[in-house]
Amino acid sequence: MNYAVLWVRDFALHALRRSDPALAGRPLALIAGEGRRAVVTEAAPEAAGVTPGLAATLAMARCPGVILRPRDPDAEVEANRLLLAAAFTLAPRVEFTGPGCCTIDLQGADPDRTGAAMRLRVAELARAGLPAQGGAAATPLLAAYAARCAEPVRLVPDARAFLAPLPLAFAEPTPAHAEILRGWGIDTLGRLTALPKAEVGRRLGTDGAALWERAAGEATRVLRLVAPPTTFIAEWDYDPPVESVEPLFFRLRRFAERLALELRAAGVVAEKLTLRLFLEDETEHGRDFRLPEPGADVDLWLRVLLAHLETVRTAARVAGVRLAATPARPPQKQDGLFDTGLRDPAVFWENLARLGALVGDDRVGTPAPADTHRPDAFTLGKPAETVPAPAPPPVPAPRGPVLRRFRPPRPARVVCVEERPAQLESEAAQGAVRAAAGPWRVSGDWWRPEAWAVETWQVELAGGGVYQLARTAAGWCVEGVLD
Amino acid sequence: MSGGPATLAALRSLLAARFPEKARKTGGGPATGVAAVDEALGGGLPAGRLTELVAAPGGGAQLVLAGLLASTRGARQRLALVDGADGFAPDAVPADHLRHLVWVRCRTADEAFAAGDLLVRDGNYAAVVLDLRGLALRALRRRPAAAWYRLQRAAEGGAAAVLVLSPGPLVPAAPCRLGLRAPLALADRRVPRAALAAGLAVDLGRGAPAEAELAG
């Protein structure tokens, strides 16, 4: 088996259906033409009694509730890209044969894995709303025949046995030839190829010989290869614009399904997603999502996107959306023997993203002291994937109660006696000071405009409680309680 | 009534045998490093359970948190701190004790509960600390009991020990509730932190191991 074909029956119909969630499970038919001249070109099985060629008015009479829509070129382009992306995951040499049809050159691919790989792709396409069929055989034509009668994948190791029962229509005879052959009692490819090719050619001409070759599946050709995508971008314009998350999320799911396939076909993963919403008032809302764990997991992407979208409020309706994935090589790592890794990295990073959406990205993470003596200076960074081995205990060992801060510090009025706090009045605490320790004076960044200087005291109130006070140029404040 | 305790013990044994999944498992989670708390909990915070530690400002709860940070760091486990009023001071504990910590700095009780709900279900943490001190007690008490039951159900069956630091008793039907009473003084600032933690005393509330064998 040197070639494979991925083919979608009623492609335009499925492309339209997968682009509009309102069409799921509804009787749908495609029409061409306008007004009374509109005729049905494709009909879904749910549209009982509606057949191609039927006038639109008659279709509505036969199937009340049928939805009649013209073809959607944008939806078909998107569906074709999805099909191509699936094809590129099977082999790098792919031909875009026509709408809803790709031919793949399998030479060099592992024949034992072809069937399983095709079944996987077909299942993925079905989940993405594009029910494809796949066939693999020795020639492109034979593979196309196999795809058309596959359920959903058919491999053809023996061409003669496969072709024999197929109807003559598979070889696409001209109406004249079909009439002649029907008169000869020939209605299958097997019966036609049972005749000598030269005799068929002598009676039906060169077209007849070509028909015989097509019936035998022998016709071969050079594939017109297309280049795989090098950028991973999906874009859609809404007409009319949308104002809720649901249609946006539906479109992003379709984008993610296609982009993930394209990335996998290229042997890369996404390290960053870029979302742009084009608003009706010609402004934009943009957001970059750096994925903590680079990958091509559609559900993970969508959870990250949804966590953000649920917090977005725009001034105008959304007229367009673009999703781009920045590719990166798949992460390769090997943890140390005693490293404590994550039990479920996907859940861990997803929950961090959700927490970031909840409280703000700058308010979640692993704290680390900043390189300054300024009080309450720290950075919040990305948590480590593995918990490193602990350092030796600090020397000297920490002493005293642990400070618990008030953020922001509570303004205070402090009465000093002999330059030591004697009375504290503040929202956080008030009373006479029983004992005080300090002052500890620190300052820094004196060479910058944001120079700072602070004098710190620790005081124990007569009514109980030990508090940390700070005196700056702005006055006194209670920094926290020692707990 | 004669034979009451024996009957009660027999009933508890019967229930424990019939519903083993409901039998209280003490310990199993990380130790807090505070002897009185660990002893009261049977060795450490119970995994898959919610423990409430009630402490007034200056009551020593931050010492318990620092101890928990140290013990989980030593065991190379992950700790999540949902900081309801954004009061944690990273500069107050050794820098190495922060490397396994995920700190969520909330502004409101709603944010804290939502963050706690996510983290308790995460499965990657040995302990999740929900610190509600600094939030208005009256507002916390107005929260529907269902929010607490939801948190308890989320904790059950998980591997994480859930510690709620509260300014007053809040958790309805808390499986374990302890109260801290530590009259800290200014002179304590020269005392090694380990000695201070060893000196903390707890009030045994609901759910001490010797008190009952079944969860509420």
Q: What report would you give on this structure?
A:
The complex is a heterodimer of chains A (about 475) and B (about 220). Chain A has about 475 residues and is of the alpha+beta class. Chain A has four domains: about 5-75 and about 85-155, MutS, DNA mismatch repair protein, domain I, CATH 3.40.1170; about 160-215, DNA polymerase, domain 1 (Orthogonal Bundle); about 235-330, DNA polymerase, Y-family, little finger domain (Dna Ligase, domain 1, 2-Layer Sandwich); about 405-480, no CATH class. Chain A is about 30% helix and about 35% strand. Chain A has twelve helices and 21 strands. Chain A has helices at about 10-20, 55-60, 75-90, 110-125, 140-150, 160-165, 175-185, 190-195, 195-215, 245-265, 300-310, 345-360; strands at about 5-10, 30, 40-45, 65-70, 95-100, 100-105, 130-135, 155, 225, 235-240, 270-280, 285-295, 320-330, 365-370, 380, 405-415, 420-425, 430-445, 450-460, 465-470, 475-480. Chain A has a six-stranded mixed β-sheet with strand order 8-7-1-6-5-9. In chain A, a hairpin with a 7-residue loop joins β18 and β19 (about 450-460). In chain A, α1 (about 10-20) packs across α3, α3 runs antiparallel to α4 (about 110-125) and α10 (about 245-265) runs antiparallel to α11. Chain A is elongated, with a radius of gyration of 35 Å. Chain B has about 220 residues and is α/β, with parallel strands linked by helices. Chain B has a single domain (about 25-205), classed as P-loop containing nucleotide triphosphate hydrolases (Rossmann fold). Chain B has helices at about 5-20, 35-40, 60-75, 110-120, 135-140, 145-155, 195-200; strands at about 50-55, 80-85, 100-105, 125-130, 160-165, 175-180, 200-205. Chain B has a seven-stranded mixed β-sheet, with helices on both faces. In chain B, α4 (about 110-120) runs parallel beside α6 (about 145-155). The longest helix of chain B has 15 residues, at about 5-20. Classes of the chains: A alpha+beta (about 475), B alpha/beta (about 220). At the A-B interface, α12, β14, β16, β18 and β19 of A face α3, β3, α4 and α7 of B.
